[in-house]
């Protein structure tokens, strides 16, 4: 049976674009359209049933956030995928929408060009498939493979030849994707004010949204949380959110200082930032212990990178348990790769990581 989709957007063009895309997949059908949250609530109150909702943020009368809040108040449990523009106000409200329960968000295409629409289409179907429990949308050829035991052994063998001198320096890295912005609110604020090591978060997000995510997490946390900036020095007791739409890496200077590098290097597996890329940049650093958190998200990002780093230095990994994940993709991949030390519920991730690091 086809999954029924409700499309809410004040733009007639966007409603048509989304409807045309949905019609390409026989798993879904557009069962309703609305120009704003008020019209959408009227449709829902008419006892019309929907399996998933696609909702814009900025709309007249009742915007996307207000609509989602009303759904919560009336205890209407329909997964909602937010479609948001790059405007700064939209970015902040998108983070708020994720905080109050939106399943995920998609950035609106920048132009009507075929390439932009194609990217939007792939992301849209990825979200819809997961929201409707239809599995992952990506074709097998597009998925990042999980490292096998041979790969891990190869990395370990190389590590024996290139292990840097031990300095006692430690780093915390957290990787997350779908469901991550909300999950991070249950992790980052649990680190104490006197936490003695830097924390880097690689959350899959497009350009323009990570600053708002960092701002919200900063409001909730004892530690300083900020969007990572190219060339800035890594400091203990600070949380850096890898910039959306860029590849984040860490570079160690001859003086021993660590600088964040935010570049336009190509996406890997469609991801920018990509956790694998960041982890690989740690191989030639002097960190001798890295504590990793792998949170909710589709795909297998982080598994290959962690496997690579484990060949060169001490790495401890805490993954989020399946029952508390929005999407049990990245933690599952890490577990299958054999790199997970502990798998715990979301609310225990921070404490488990601190226990691993001895804090």
Question: Can I get a quick summary?
Answer:
By secondary structure, the chain is an alpha/beta fold. The chain has helices at about 10-20, 35-45, 65-75, 90-100, 115-130, 150-160, 180-185, 210-220, 275-280, 305-310, 330-335, 350-355, and strands at about 5-10, 30-35, 50-55, 80-85, 105, 170-175, 200-205, 225, 240, 245-250, 260-265, 290-295, 315-320, 340-345.
Topology:
Blueprint: E1 3-8, H1 12-22, E2 28-34, H2 37-45, E3 52-56, H3 64-73, E4 80-84, H4 88-99, E5 104-107, H5 114-131, H6 149-162, E6 170-176, H7 180-184, E7 199-203, H8 210-220, E8 224-227, E9 238-241, E10 247-252, E11 258-263, H9 275-280, E12 289-294, H10 303-310, E13 314-320, H11 330-336, E14 342-344, H12 349-357
Helix pairs in contact: 2-3, 4-8, 6-10
Features:
alpha/beta, seven-stranded parallel beta sheet, elongated
Helix content: 25-40%
Number of strands: 14
How far is the N terminus from the C terminus?
A: 52 Å
> Largest sheet, if any?
7 strands, parallel
Range of strand content: 15-25%
Radius of gyration, rounded? Answer: 21 Å
Task: Give, in spatial order, the strands making up the sheet with the most strands.
Answer: 8-9-7-6-12-13-14
Instruction: Supply the helix-strand structural class.
Output: alpha/beta
Q: Which outline best applies?
A: elongated
SSE string, helix = H, strand = E?
EHEHEHEHEHHEHEHEEEEHEHEHEH
Mean pLDDT: 89
User: In DSSP terms, counting alpha (H) and pi (I) runs of 4 or more, how many helices?
Assistant: 12
Low-pLDDT stretches: 139-166
């Amino acid at each position: 049976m086809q999954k029924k989709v409700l499309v809410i957007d004040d733009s007639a063009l966007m409603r048509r674009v989304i409807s045309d895309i949905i019609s390409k997949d026989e798993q879904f059908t557009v069962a309703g359209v609305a120009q704003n949250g008020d019209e959408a609530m009227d449709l829902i109150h008419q006892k019309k049933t929907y399996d998933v909702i696609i909702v814009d943020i900025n709309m007249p009368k009742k915007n996307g956030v207000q609509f989602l809040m009303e759904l919560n108040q009336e205890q209407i449990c329909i997964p909602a995928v937010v479609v948001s523009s790059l405007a700064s106000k939209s970015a902040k409200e998108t983070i708020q929408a994720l905080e109050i329960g939106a399943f995920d968000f998609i950035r609106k295409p920048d132009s009507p060009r075929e390439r932009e629409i194609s990217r939007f289409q792939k992301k849209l179907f990825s979200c819809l498939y997961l929201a409707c429990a239809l599995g992952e949308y990506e074709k097998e050829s597009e998925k990042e493979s999980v490292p096998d035991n041979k790969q891990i052994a190869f990395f370990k063998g190389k590590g024996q030849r290139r292990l840097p001198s031990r300095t006692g320096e430690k780093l915390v890295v957290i990787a997350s994707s779908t469901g991550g912005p909300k999950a991070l609110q249950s992790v980052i604020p649990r680190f104490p004010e006197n936490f003695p090591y830097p924390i880097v978060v690689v959350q899959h997000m497009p350009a323009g949204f990570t600053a708002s995510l960092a701002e919200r997490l900063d409001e909730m946390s004892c530690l300083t949380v900020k969007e990572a900036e190219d060339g800035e020095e890594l400091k203990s007791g600070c949380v850096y959110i890898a910039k959306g739409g860029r590849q984040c890496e860490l570079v160690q200077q001859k003086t021993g200082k660590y600088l964040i590098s935010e570049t336009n290097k190509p996406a890997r597996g469609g991801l920018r930032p990509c956790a694998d890329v960041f982890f690989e940049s740690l191989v030639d650093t002097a960190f001798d212990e890295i504590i990793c958190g792998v949170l909710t998200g589709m795909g297998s990002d982080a598994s290959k990178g962690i496997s690579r780093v484990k060949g060169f230095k001490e790495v401890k990994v805490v993954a989020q348990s399946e029952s508390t994940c929005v999407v049990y993709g990245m933690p599952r991949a890490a577990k299958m790769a054999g790199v997970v030390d502990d798998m715990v519920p979301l609310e225990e991730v921070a404490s488990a990581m601190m226990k691993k690091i001895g804090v």
